[in-house]
Specification:
The complex is a heterotrimer.
Chain A lengths: L8 E9 L5 E10 L3 E6 L6 H8 L7 E6 L2 E2 L5 H8 L2 E4 L11 H6 L8 H6 L4 H13 L15 H14 L4 E5 L7 H18 L2 E5 L3 H7 L2 E6 L2 E6 L6 H8 L7
Parallel strand pairs in A: 3-8, 3-9, 6-7, 7-8
Antiparallel strand pairs in A: 1-2, 1-4, 4-5, 9-10
Chain B lengths: L14 H20 L4 H18 L7 H33 L6 H16 L2 H12 L3 H25 L3 H9 L4 H32 L10 H10 L3 H29 L1
Chain C lengths: L1 H35 L4 H18 L6 H35 L7 H16 L2 H12 L3 H25 L3 H9 L4 H32 L10 H10 L3 H29 L1
The chains are: A alpha/beta, B mainly alpha, C mainly alpha.
The structure holds adenosine-5'-triphosphate (ATP) and magnesium ion (MG).
Magnesium ion binds next to helix 1 of chain A.
Chain lengths: 256, 261, 265
């Protein structure tokens, strides 16, 4: 497994436009080969969410390649696509849990890619899945909430469930689209800590879109700055200077 | 390696689902036997069905004069019963509103409304046909009763939900009951009334094409006699007309609602 | 500033004009209808007498008639309503899925299913019953199918609306896990529409109890057949017995539905 994780996710010359003639992503080239949090920063509307969604094909990119597990994801469909998707965990700003199901079942929905619809209907989760779910739940500190409905949780708790669901997938990479933007500062730090711990434990990269630069710098092993659909910074978090920030976000009055 | 302990399955298989499925299945079988339903009869019917479809198409509009007569009568029934029914409902709804009237007025009025709505229009229609004879009059009376049952209740509820501040403000000026209703109550509920009324006009239009089946006038009568004469291509023509008129009605009432919102 | 004001005024003026036109058309249509409708005035004035006469002949109820005929017919009516509601689900659920734009993102498919739903709703259940009596002959089958075909449009439309209101973020999250289409339906859509589904079905069942009581008037089984026979023989005390039992069943059904709903919420 460690072997195959070299160069796990590779993005080559990725372009996307929602409307013809209005490119959002312009020739993105990125390699993700080390474990840990990779923070993606950039101004609103620059295409960070679009980039993440192109990776697991919630959006079909206009052109380019997404190499994952030695397959170009932009060229697969249907069953094949789903088989790869189940190794890409995704975490959302609004958590996107199934509110009316219990916390433990929300975790288990992370296994849907591995089971038949009939088994999903009958709730025939394997004993292994159930064990993993409970252990993970304990790890994220929600052991006592297993049988509560997801809509009875606070935002921070929901995000922990969201992360646990993604980890249940046995992912080779995690994608997180502003996982902390709806949370208070303290909870935001806890969530980033959790993502960091899990990414290291699983030895996988976690791509995190984030607006809070200092929070990003605190946890990231690498930062990607985007602006105008291009990557304008790609390197260690310490390497980001005020000049870079000006270039990424434009202007400077906000910096002081 | 530590021994992994198995967690208990968090989804205790509640028997409720299984029991539910069994109950429904048992009911289906019981009901089918009880009512002498059988696949054979059903399949036999399907044969008739395709024969019937053959005879229904293409639709036959050659007797369009008959069709037009029925249509006009249906519209007359719908329009008169809507106007009269809504007008009466205004008062009955006011009388039934518990915040405007003492209990000895509102309670009996509510019983009347409940009686009006608990019977299907067709049942009311046959009673009226027996009482006043075949024709448009029975249809009219039926739909007036149906309108009262539906709209007066909604009117009453809308009036009960109004803000009482304005009523008190106007009452404080020493206004009479009539002017309280006109200037404090009506403005608050007017647009909802229009909405209900449009809905009722719509449903009266639908029902006016139906009550004729039991002899209460309108296009339903034309339809029923076409059925009895096995005139199935004319039946199709009538059905298409009904669908068209209902769609038109829905469109128009949507427009009116837009104007008054 | 003033131009905006001016436009605003013109807008309300148009609105006023439109309202006035609606009033005018309503009054004109009403007067035209009153003048031309084919009603014999004497009959109209005589109506109160006739009606009170009819009611006086209905009293007292013929209670002995209940166990002989009414009870069985009443049960049959309930069966027709229940079976019809169950059968309708076979068609209504798929049509609702095809009609919901957030399930099938294909306008052509949406419109085709909408066409079926609208047709079902535009034809009254009594008319559906006439059609099915012509196909299957008089009896319960025609009644069940009439109820089913009329309810498809109702349940399908409301269910599709409920589906369109669900949170699509959840659906996206499940798709992202690699779940199959069917699994997303089961774990994403279904938990979210489940309460609406049951309340729509119960609501329609309640309506169907009322509707199935009249289908017998055109021969499609149930208590309506008994009512029709009693009417044709002018047996008014039996008629009132039947009417009373229909009334009781309708009220009971309504109470039942209200109770179940309370528990569900
Ligand atoms: N479904 C869509 N259809 C058309 N345009 C879209 C769609 N989604 C996003 N866009 C456009 O694409 C651009 C990039 O959007 P995206 O959501 O990727 O930005 P972002 O970098 O994630 O911004 P934020 O930080 O505010 O989340 C925006 O200009 C947006 O208006
Ligand atoms: Mg975004």
């Amino acid at each position: 497994m460690a072997e195959s994780q070299q160069n796990y996710l590779q993005i080559r010359n990725l372009n996307h436009e929602y409307e013809a003639g209005k490119p959002i992503l312009r020739g993105i080239d990125l390699n993700f080969d080390q474990p840990g949090i990779i923070a993606i920063i950039g101004p609103s509307g620059t295409g960070k969410s679009t980039l993440l969604r192109c990776i697991n094909r919630l959006i079909n990119p206009t052109s380019g390649e997404v190499l994952f597990d030695n397959v170009d994801l932009t060229s697969v469909e249907g069953k094949e696509l789903r088989r790869h998707r189940r190794h890409i965990g995704m975490v959302f700003q609004e958590y996107n849990l199934v509110e009316r199901l219990t916390v433990i079942e929300n975790l288990l929905t992370g296994r849907l890619g591995y089971m038949s619809a009939w088994n999903a209907w009958r709730r025939n989760y394997t004993q292994d899945d159930i064990n993993n779910a409970f252990e993970l739940l304990e790890m994220v500190g929600l052991k006592d909430f297993a049988k509560q409905r997801a809509d009875s949780l606070s935002g921070g708790q929901r995000q922990r469930v969201g992360i646990a669901r993604a980890v249940m997938q046995d992912p080779y990479v995690l994608l997180a689209d502003e996982p902390t933007s709806s949370l208070d500062p303290k909870t935001a730090v806890e969530i980033m800590e959790l993502m960091d711990t899990l990414a290291r434990r699983k030895n996988i990269p976690a791509l995190v879109n984030i607006h809070d630069v200092s929070l990003a710098q605190r946890f990231a092993v690498r930062m990607v700055g985007m602006s105008g659909g291009h990557v304008v910074y790609d390197g260690p978090p310490e390497g980001i200077t005020e000049d870079h920030l000006k270039q990424i976000y434009g202007g400077e009055s906000w910096l002081s | 390696m530590a021994v992994v302990k198995d967690y208990p399955n968090p989804f205790e298989r509640s028997p409720a689902n299984t029991i539910g499925v069994i109950v429904i299945a048992a009911y289906l079988i019981y009901a089918a036997i009880d009512m002498d339903l059988s696949l054979a009869r059903f399949l036999e019917g399907l044969g008739h069905g395709s024969a019937l479809l053959d005879r229904m198409f293409p639709p036959n509009f050659t007797r369009w004069e008959l069709l037009l007569d029925g249509l006009i009568e249906s519209m007359q029934i719908a329009i008169i019963s809507s106007v009269v029914g809504i007008f009466m409902s205004l008062f009955i709804g006011l009388f039934a509103a518990r915040n405007m009237m003492p209990a000895w007025v509102s309670s009996p009025t509510r019983v009347i409304i409940a009686l009006c709505r608990s019977f299907h229009p067709v049942i009311i229609a046959i009673l009226f046909v027996k009482a006043v004879g075949f024709g448009a009059l029975a249809g009219l009376l039926t739909l007036i009763v149906a309108s009262i049952g539906f709209i007066a209740k909604l009117f009453a509820e809308a009036i009960e939900e109004i803000s009482f501040k304005q009523v008190e403000a106007i009452r404080a000026t020493g206004a009479s009951f009539t002017s309280i209703v006109l200037f404090a109550v009506l403005p608050q509920v007017f647009s909802r009334f229009i909405g209900f009324s449009m809905y009722q006009l719509d449903s009266n239009l639908r029902n006016s094409t139906m009550v004729g089946i039991v002899g209460a006038g309108g296009l339903g009568g034309t339809l029923f006699s076409a059925f009895q004469r096995f005139d199935y291509d004319f039946v199709t023509a009538i059905l298409l007309t009904i669908i068209a008129i209902i769609l038109l009605g829905e469109f128009l009432s949507g427009k009116v609602r837009e104007i008054f919102q | 500033m003033s131009t905006i004001n001016h436009q605003w005024e013109r807008f309300t003026f148009q609105k006023k004009l439109a309202r006035f036109a609606v009033y005018l058309v309503t009054v004109a249509a009403f007067l035209a209808s009153i003048r031309t409708v084919d009603v014999i005035p004497e009959f109209f004035y005589d109506a109160p007498n006739q009606i009170s006469d009819m009611f006086s002949r209905m009293w007292p109820l013929d209670t002995a008639f209940y166990p002989i005929t009414v009870h069985a017919a009443l049960m049959e009516t309930l069966h027709i309503a229940t079976l019809g509601t169950l059968v309708t689900l076979i068609f209504a659920v798929p049509l609702a899925l095809l009609n919901a734009r957030n399930v099938v993102a294909n306008p052509v498919v949406n419109w085709i299913s909408r066409f079926f739903l609208v047709s079902s709703r535009s034809v009254n259940s009594l008319v559906w019953a006439l059609l099915f009596v012509a196909v299957f002959g008089p009896g319960v089958i025609a009644g069940v199918l009439a109820i089913a075909f009329r309810s498809v449009g109702f349940i399908g439309k409301l269910l599709a609306e409920a589906i369109e209101e669900i949170n699509m973020g959840t659906i996206e999250a499940l798709r992202a896990t690699g779940a199959s289409w069917a699994s997303v339906l089961i774990k994403g859509y279904w938990p979210q529409v489940k309460p609406a589904f049951f309340s729509i079905v119960l609501f329609r069942w309640d309506i169907n109890v009322r509707e199935s009581a009249v289908l017998g008037l055109v021969g499609a089984g149930g208590i309506g057949v008994v009512l029709n026979d009693a009417m044709n023989l002018f047996e008014w005390q039996k008629v009132s017995m039947v009417l009373f039992s229909i009334f009781a069943v309708v009220i009971l059904a309504e109470i039942l539905v209200v109770q179940i709903r309370k528990r569900m919420i």
